[in-house]
């Protein structure tokens, strides 16, 4: 990365489709033009996306790239309306929008919940919940043996785990997922967006009040009580913002990861046969899915604090920049000419960026990996002939260019 100007003609901006859809064809076209692309966000907001693997890796760790929306020029100029579908990503208070000392403070207060030791302590409950959900799949299936795997398995597993970690009662799970879906949607109207955010804050405020009144052995109680040596703790807004981000990131990404892995294995039976025969591991499946079909396509936002030139393209100071994880995963310059091929024996699979890079690397990565490996191994051990019940191209896609997956996953359990 350098900071010198360029005389190259600027390509026409890519208008991101608020309705989402499969990102890979558009990603390939954009990558053919370069590692950075100008984009038009909903509401005709001008932005940029960093798509190339190496450019994104450098950009994510660059010292002159910030996460705090005080650096979002259009927002600070009053040009972003209330109800803009991506505004929550910019303005929520928490780790994903903090920089420097604030980010280190918030991350240190959360870090104990996601250590390797804590993840291992959660393994028995993950395995027990996985077994219960598998038991319920055949019951939920219709007479034709078809069941929506996303609704009955891929969703309740990570939602149950993250809510157990946070001390959120089961009665809130369905509503929190519905609200999370609205918050990450990019095709939502202003009134709906603001209503979803208000209700999410109301639900999480009730959770925080319950844990304040009756602390337990959970992360919410720990966040309420936590103090660093200097006396710092979560402010009320930071607490609610952190709960929101942890619930959304803690289940939506793992839900998409499990869903995308099942889709990949069902449409690449040779790869499924290989792992069932012991020729590759379930961890290999997870890493290749993260690379090949990232659970997050374009993640908002980062802002250069000065004009930067990335791969020959100037990104002006204050521009909202999307991290193009799904594009970087199929960048042929990083992953070879066959980057679009799903191959669980790929030796460079661990080089993907789908869980982030740098100071904001996903804190929940070990938990997401453990949940996904457990889910896939037990699912296909129990139902090795499991297959899609409809052709993969007919599966309805997420109404978002942030999340990358399908809304339903009907499968036939016994082929």
TrEMBL record:
GO terms for molecular function: heme binding; iron ion binding; monooxygenase activity; oxidoreductase activity, acting on paired donors, with incorporation or reduction of molecular oxygen. It holds the Pfam family p450. Residues 1-21 are annotated as: Disordered. Gene3D superfamilies: Cytochrome P450 (1.10.630.10). It comes from the Bacteria. The keyword Oxidoreductase applies. Coiled coil: none annotated. Keywords: Heme, Iron, Metal-binding, Monooxygenase, Oxidoreductase. SUPFAM superfamilies: Cytochrome P450. Belongs to the cytochrome P450 family. This is Cytochrome P450. It comes from Streptomyces violaceoruber. The lineage of its organism: Bacteria, Bacillati, Actinomycetota, Actinomycetes, Kitasatosporales.
């Amino acid at each position: 990365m350098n900071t010198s100007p360029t005389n190259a003609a600027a390509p026409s901006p890519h208008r991101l489709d608020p309705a989402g859809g499969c990102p890979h064809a558009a990603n390939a076209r954009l990558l053919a033009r370069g590692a950075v692309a100008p984009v038009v966000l909903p509401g005709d907001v001008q932005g940029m996306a960093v798509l190339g693997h190496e450019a994104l890796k450098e950009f994510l760790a660059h010292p002159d790239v910030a996460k705090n929306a005080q650096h979002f020029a259009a927002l600070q100029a009053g040009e972003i309306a209330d109800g803009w579908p991506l505004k929550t990503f910019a303005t929520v208070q928490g780790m994903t929008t903090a920089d420097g000392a604030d980010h280190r403070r918030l991350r240190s207060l959360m870090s104990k919940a996601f250590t390797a030791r804590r993840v291992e302590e959660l393994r028995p409950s993950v395995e027990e919940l996985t077994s219960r959900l598998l038991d319920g799949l055949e019951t939920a299936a219709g007479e034709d043996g078809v069941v929506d795997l996303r609704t009955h398995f891929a969703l309740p597993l990570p939602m149950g785990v993250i809510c157990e970690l946070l001390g959120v009662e089961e009665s809130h799970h369905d509503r929190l997922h519905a609200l999370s879906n609205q918050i990450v949607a990019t095709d939502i109207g202003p009134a709906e967006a603001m209503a979803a955010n208000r209700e999410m804050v109301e639900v999480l405020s009730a959770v925080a009040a319950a844990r304040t009144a009756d602390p337990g052995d959970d992360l919410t109680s720990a966040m309420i009580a936590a103090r660093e040596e200097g006396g710092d703790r979560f402010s009320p807004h930071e607490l609610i913002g952190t709960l929101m981000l942890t619930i959304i990131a803690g289940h939506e990404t793992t839900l998409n990861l499990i869903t995308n892995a099942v889709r990949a294995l069902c449409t690449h039976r040779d790869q499924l046969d290989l792992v069932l025969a012991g020729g590759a591991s379930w961890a290999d499946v997870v890493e290749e899915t993260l690379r090949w079909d990232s659970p997050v396509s374009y993640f908002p936002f980062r802002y250069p604090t000065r004009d930067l030139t990335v791969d020959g393209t100037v990104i002006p100071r204050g521009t909202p920049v999307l991290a193009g994880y799904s594009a970087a995963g199929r960048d042929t310059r990083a992953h070879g000419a066959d980057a679009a091929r799903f191959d669980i024996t790929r030796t460079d699979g661990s080089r993907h960026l789908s869980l982030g890079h740098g100071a904001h690397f996903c804190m929940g990565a070990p938990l997401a990996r453990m949940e996904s490996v457990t889910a896939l191994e037990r699912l296909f051990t129990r139902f090795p002939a499991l297959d899609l019940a409809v052709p993969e191209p007919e599966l309805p896609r997420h109404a978002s260019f942030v999340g990358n997956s399908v809304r339903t996953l009907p499968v036939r359990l016994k082929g």
